[in-house]
Design a protein that fits this description.
Length: 159
Amino acid sequence: MIKLDEKDCIILNMLQADCRKSLTGIAKKVKLSVDSTKKRIIKMKENNIFFPKIQLRPRNFGFNNIVDIKIKAHNYSDSDIREFIDYLKGHPNVAEVMSVSGEWDFSIVVIARDGMDLGNITRAIRNKFSKIINDWSESLTTCVYKFEDYDMLKVMGHK
């Protein structure tokens, strides 16, 4: 486990708020040199604390249906599951694929332009993997209030 001090947490909070924040601005906030700040960021990236990524807003480019789908699997082999996961990972409308514990085995997020598009996407998945899909539940995301946003100072117990 990697230890994150207060300065690391402040850096991470700043990058979450604005991943394009200048090194100079971050360095001033944490009271370090630009070189020291850059080394910390590189080290955290190398240790997989984060990866730089932009967050897209599908509704703003025509995908009005963002649907969380829970799937319960049965009667499957390891190769069936690998094929299922690989198919979902390669599908352009599947934004997230996670195996989960609890009542469901998988959670996926699908983006679709409209109800017809959504029906075509989900029908294709269900038909292709009907042998292993035992149960399926969909819920339309109506509004996102918080997504992948961590107050690292609080999470790591610094404040």
